[in-house]
Amino acid sequence: MVVFPHAKINIGLFVTGKRNDGFHNLETIFFPVGWSDILEIGRGEGESGSFRFKNTGLEVGGDPGKNLVIKAYHLLAADFHLPAIQVHLHKIIPFGAGLGGGSADAAFMLKALNAFFDLRLSGQKMVTYAARLGSDCAFFIDDRPAFASGKGELLEPIELTLAGYRIIIVKPSFGVSTPEAYAGITPRPAGYDLRQLGQLPVNTWKEYIRNDFEATVFQKYPSLTLLKQQLYERGAEFVSMSGSGSAIYGLFKKDREINLDFPDCCVWQGETLI
Residue 30's closest CA among 170, 139, 126? Predict the structure, then answer.
């Protein structure tokens, strides 16, 4: 079975408070976009619970025990008698970008295992498993635009479409870690109820919403300020950093001709999924 875990962007991101558990409360919109990895699963050889993992494309690296795809398998294997399996992840979505690529891989792994082994898990049960893997993993189960609050795990479906728009995502050569982005953040109340965003024209969004991480991340990486400015200069209706960065995206009318020359950056363009 082959599935295509895809990225998300954050439309608006307000860091509203510090929690007693050390995390932060936030308010944001998660919106799916088509920049995708490729994940293939199949039956393997060996005893039940045996797991073989192959990685191509961008190197995942790091401690295999912290790989969210592997953790997703073991999460279900703890509750179900899963046969031996082999997994191939072709990684395309860049790391340290604020695009949720690792979370998408984990959520799509859960969905693929559910379908492949006919586990018959309900959508809500899948959301419960996904939330145990990471704050934004649950979003990729239902995979529809959602208003997220809490740590990002509390989701409310919203009516928001970007039909008629093309999205361009520019990822510079460096990434931004989540702890790095939170350093220096001062929580403050949300400036706008993001659940009402669909009532506003896209070209007015910049007057109402912000990504709170931009203030601190742009100060450390001034080149991101330049990328945002360049996307506006090339005709974007709205530009923002996604999540904690470092990817910057712009929303353009579909009929707009766009210069995609961004040296030393990884660039993706496509229509939005909704």
Answer: 139
